[in-house]
Amino acid sequence: MAPRLPNKPGWGTCSLRNGLLRRRLFRDVARLLKRHPALVVVTWLSMVAGVLFLGLLAAGTHRLRLPDLTHSGWASVLFLGRSVPRWASTLWLWALQRLTPTKTAVFLTLNPIAATLLSVGLLGERVGPGFLLGLVLVLAGIVVANRPARAAQ
């Protein structure tokens, strides 16, 4: 019997629903990857997500208005919006083809760490002790989640 969720959603309920939705998404994407190459799956998922996002944006704002950006600004938007997520998603789906969805999902926690390290290297940002503690905890979680299972005794 499935657990009943409260009618009035709070942060815990939203988090639980998000987790269940992501678990379902991982399972469905893993099924797609058994039949199609990772790049094909990324391309289709990106197109569907883009159409859904634009639809929600248009519905929420009642108009679509492009920002006034320079040529280099548009080039940056295209680079960040198309190339970086495409490679990240392709690598993630490549891993999903070779590992279980549970083991692959653990590595999603590296995204904010990679972004922070890139901001340190490229933008000269500073990190504090909280980041270092978080880094150690995330890496420890990845090690624990990916350790080999012990044989039952």
What does this structure look like?
75% of the residues lie in helices and 0% in strands. It is mainly alpha-helical and 153 residues long. Among the domains are: 53 residues; 48 residues. Helix 2 packs across helix 3.
In short:
With about 150 residues, the protein is an all-alpha fold. The protein contains six helices and no strands. Helix 2 crosses helix 3 (about 70-100).
Which properties best describe this structure?
153 residues, mainly alpha, 6 helices, 75% helix, globular
Q: Mean pLDDT, nearest integer?
A: 76
Low-confidence residue ranges: none
Enumerate how many helices there are, as a single number: 6
Helix and strand run: HHHHHH
Structural class of the secondary structure composition? mainly alpha
Estimate the strand proportion: under 5%
| Spatial shape | globular
Number of strands: 0
Radius of gyration: 19 Å
Largest sheet: none
Euclidean distance between termini CA atoms: 31 Å
Helix content: over 70%
